[in-house]
Design a protein that fits this description.
alpha/beta; Spore Coat Polysaccharide Biosynthesis Protein SpsA, Chain A; 14 helices; globular
Length: 329
């Protein structure tokens, strides 16, 4: 078997069908699809059960809620594939994702894991932005020491590389993917397919927004752990709640991405006063790097009909770019 696809889901019924079907409809067919129901209390179990009956590639694991990290490690323990593909229950893989990523790993033995370009979609499936694009393995591998380029659900790993790295570490409730990448690049390289093959759904209650400070703190701790290992020191000695708490307190406005997304969605939902409250702390001190916040601030004062027209145009321009190939560059 070539690929084991692993997904962990907790109360994901609203988006689960679309996500599962995006995997089952891949042009590359040689895979098993391991879905861990992490103690869901909504209709998740029923939805998974339907697809398990329809497609023998679907393997279901049920357990009490343990969180994403432990659920993924349980799925890894059951995986039989040469490669391991991640898929998040909120997200959508485009049909050629596995095919293109397998071609890259098959053709470049020095690469141990591979991502792809990805689009950001809202709760309605409208594209509003794209993630960072870089396909040079040397640049990606070096750059990961400073920043996480990848969308976790879009990554395909060599199973042997994952096993050598030790899988996901239980300490990391969030940024578990970034901690894993930083351990992987110590002995292998990262790559990426320079084409949009994945849509990451961003919701107001997702980890990326509501848990942004905690996410940023765990990511910073992953970087500090990497630096400790680079200095030939035992990085597990710094994986302490006390250090994490101090990083959470310091994180503040260091990571402006989630704040921008939350303000963006508030404006789209016509909660303009709330949006301005979110934007205000980011405006000072003045800096050219904050131009997107200045633009969003002024945009919040546009009349609602004009904002709707602009949102409509933005979404459809993005779709046109995807169809014509401009967004893949």
């Amino acid at each position: 078997m070539k690929i084991s696809v692993i997904m962990a889901v907790y109360n994901g019924a609203e988006t689960l069908k679309e996500s599962i079907e995006s995997v089952l409809n891949q042009t590359f067919k040689d895979f098993e699809f391991i879905i861990v129901n992490d103690g869901s209390t909504d209709d998740t179990a029923e939805i998974i059960g339907i697809y398990q009956k329809l497609d023998p590639r679907v393997v279901v694991i049920e357990h009490k809620n343990q969180g994403l990290t432990k659920s993924l490690n349980i799925a890894l323990g059951k995986a039989r594939g040469e490669y391991i593909a991640r898929q998040d229950a909120d997200d959508v893989s485009l049909p050629q994702r596995f095919q293109r990523q397998v071609q890259l790993l098959d053709g470049q033995g020095r690469i141990g894991f591979v991502g792809c370009n990805y689009g950001l979609i809202d709760s309605e499936g409208c594209i509003f932005d794209f993630g960072p694009k870089e396909d040079n393995p040397d640049k990606i591998t070096r750059g990961l020491a400073r920043k996480n380029f990848f969308c976790h659900g879009s990554v395909l790993f060599r199973k042997k590389a994952l096993e050598k790295a030790g899988g996901y570490r239980d300490f990391f409730r969030y940024a578990q993917d970034y901690d894993l990448y930083l351990r992987l690049i110590e002995f292998t390289m990262a790559g990426s397919v320079n084409k949009v093959l994945y849509y990451r759904r961003v919701l107001l209650d997702s980890i990326s927004i509501s848990k942004s400070r905690l996410q940023a703190a765990y990511a910073e701790l992953a970087r500090k752990s990497y630096e400790e290992r680079r200095a030939f020191r035992d990085d597990t000695l710094i994986l302490k709640k006390e250090l994490l708490d101090s990083l959470v307190a310091k994180s503040g406005l260091d990571d402006s991405g989630p704040g921008f997304l939350e303000a963006f969605f508030c404006i789209k939902s016509n909660y303009t006063v709330r949006a301005r409250q979110i934007i205000w702390p980011y405006l000072f001190p003045a800096s050219l790097s904050k131009c997107k916040f200045y633009a969003l601030w002024f945009f919040s004062y546009f009349p609602l009909p004009l904002r709707r027209i602009l949102f409509y145009l933005k979404t459809n321009i993005r779709r046109i770019k995807l169809l014509t190939g401009y967004a893949t560059k």
